[in-house]
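$ ./design --mode recover --in tokens.txt
reading tokens...
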């Protein structure tokens, strides 16, 4: 999908993401000079986060002054919080990676219209990879249509996750979850930027992703990429509530069903949904899926 055929609001979001990416790339040339502060233990914010966020907000509100903003650093301080149109922004997802010069981080921008994600951009400035989606129009990476992986056997799958790092996180529980997944898959990865993890599920680079503790700006854009690429996203119980739930699971439909069966026991929603509901829904969905037109990675 070329720039000329993008939805106008998505076009503005792409422009905002690229402006933020330029700021991030300039700062990455001398990351030692970047001023860093700590929000809480192991949770960092840099002047680059703030500059990136300011560039995004300025671009979006110049085009759409009546829209609202929900951003990681400034919250709802900008725009019109009562608007039906809310831009959900993570100006630099993977700040810890960025600080260390580890080139796995991205810009994430989503548009929520009356509570439903309608537009999504995830931009990786290190690789100049642009992931975009408009509801009902598919997901794209650099103008190429992407689809979730076609693998159906867990033992062939590469799964990504995020490790707990905040005080009060349940480390023993996460180690049990990791152990359950690692023993049944081809590998478990922790890249360190959830928005990019979700984009990679959408592109079929990984077969699934799970993490707890995510905020709406971590997962909003990636969630639309996944569903528009033919995947499923929800919480560990397989229900659709995940954006505010701090519990996120995404995968191709058949792998999603198998991961739900594995991770349901660790869900805060355990017992809420009838057992087996999501598995049958996932099986139905997979039958109607279009074939993956992308190149399946080896």
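writing sequence...
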């Amino acid at each position: 999908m070329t720039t000329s055929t993008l939805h106008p609001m998505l076009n503005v979001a792409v422009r905002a993401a690229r402006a933020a990416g330029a700021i991030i790339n300039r700062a990455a040339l001398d990351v030692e000079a970047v001023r860093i502060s700590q929000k809480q233990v192991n949770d960092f914010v840099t002047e680059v986060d703030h500059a990136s966020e300011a560039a995004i907000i300025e671009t979006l509100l110049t085009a759409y002054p009546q829209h609202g903003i929900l951003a990681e650093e400034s919250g709802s301080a900008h725009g019109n919080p009562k608007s039906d149109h809310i831009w959900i922004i993570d100006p630099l997802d993977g700040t810890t990676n960025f600080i260390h010069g580890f080139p796995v981080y991205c810009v994430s921008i989503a548009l929520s219209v009356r509570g439903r994600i309608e537009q999504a951009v995830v931009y990786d400035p290190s690789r100049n990879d642009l992931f975009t989606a408009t509801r009902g129009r598919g997901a794209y990476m650099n103008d190429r249509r992407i689809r979730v992986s076609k693998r159906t056997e867990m033992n062939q799958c590469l799964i990504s996750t995020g490790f707990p790092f905040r005080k009060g996180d349940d480390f023993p529980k996460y180690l049990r979850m990791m152990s359950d997944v690692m023993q049944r898959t081809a590998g478990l990865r922790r890249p360190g930027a959830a928005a990019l993890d979700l984009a990679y599920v959408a592109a079929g680079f990984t077969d699934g992703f799970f993490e707890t503790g995510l905020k709406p700006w971590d997962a909003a854009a990636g969630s639309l990429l996944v569903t528009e690429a033919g995947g499923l996203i929800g919480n560990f119980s397989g229900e659709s509530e995940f954006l505010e739930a701090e519990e996120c699971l995404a995968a191709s439909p058949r792998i999603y069903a198998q991961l739900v069966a594995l991770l349901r026991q660790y869900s805060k929603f355990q017992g809420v949904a009838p057992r087996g509901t999501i598995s049958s829904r996932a099986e139905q969905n997979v039958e109607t899926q279009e074939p993956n037109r992308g190149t399946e990675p080896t």
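exit 0
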